[in-house]
Amino acid sequence: MKIFLAFALLFGFASAQLELHFIDVGQGDSILIRSPSGQSVLYDGGRSQDVPLEYLRRIGVKSLDLVVASHADADHIGGLSATIRAYHPRFFMDNELPHTTQTYEDLLLAVQEAGSQVIAPTARRIGLGDAALQVIPPPGDEGLDSNNNSVGLVVSYGEFRAALTGDAEAPEFGWWQANVPGLLSDVDVYKSAHHGSENGDSAASMAVWQPETIVISVGEGNTYGHPEPETLALYEGAGAEVYRTDQSGTVVVTATADGRYTVNAEPSSAPAVVPTEPLETNPEQSAPLDPSGEDKDCGDFSSQAEAQAFYEAAGPGDPHGLDSEGDGVACESL
Ligand SMILES: [Zn+2]
């Protein structure tokens, strides 16, 4: 049950609270969970090394008990190494699938240096005082892509429940329904799967989670077109109130054990407009993505930042083929 923030402030709830901070990391995910008894858990760290670390310091997080990497894509783990090096979390969990990017190798090195104990992403329950985390295990199937091996979490505190499912798409959700159906049930707050991508949530996932509030962690003007209108329409159809980090910045949910919670942001008011028929495209009229028409490759840039800026300006579809890994980072070799 959601209550109005003003009401909460007026009566000044003194009781213990669970906090979920959907940190504005641009295009990516990073969620801080603070339990009523003082434990802190970081689930993903966005792409930038500085953003989650600065946020944690700014709000006065003293220690991290657990860091969970949902999966090894750069928009989820890029910011974890610096945070792990600074906070030396007691425990670390990821999906345990091999991954060869430098970002992931640096993450593993940071975990090793920090002396964090690595725990397996099995269907375990992790107590956080009066609150708890239920791990929704990844399939661990290398035949599925990285997104579909995301470690999921259900956060609970008394009557309140929230679900975080990384970038899980229909294949992983189907695996969960077949293999761990007992871990899936309705929640109050839900993190949009895969940043509101069309292949993230579905009628099936909405029917299971039945969220009242959905937070989409998404970067303003991202080149993926997230969140997609079809997904916004799906959420609207499910009767959920939607909050977006690209519109509101960091979204903080504060919950009490009786299931009441507040959200520190305005819900997204943008109407979900879904084209009823395919948009007509006229090749002669559509503007070229790169007005200069010149094909660029990574050798044409003096730095990764320069390549990244060009890549982002070139619009969707990576017309110059600068992002060979398809992870949103151009010319990682620079
Ligand atoms: Zn992602």
Brief overview, please?
By secondary structure, this protein is α/β, with parallel strands linked by helices. Helices cover 24% and strands 18% of the residues. The protein starts with a helix and ends in a 21-residue tail after the last helix.
Helix run count = 10
Percentage of residues in strands: 15-25%
Structural class: alpha/beta
Average pLDDT across residues? 89
Instruction: Report the biggest beta sheet as strand number plus sense, adding barrel if it closes.
Output: 8 strands, mixed
Binned, the helix content reads 10-25%
What sequence of helices (H) and strands (E) makes up the elements? Answer: HEEEHEHHEHEEEEEHEHEHEHEEH
Give the cofactors and ligands. Answer: zinc ion
Q: How are the strands of the biggest sheet laid out side by side?
A: 6-5-4-3-2-1-14-15
Q: Compute the number of strand runs.
A: 15
Described by the principal axes of the CA atoms, the overall outline is: globular
Beginning-to-end CA distance, first to last residue? 49 Å
Low-confidence stretches: 6-14, 278-292
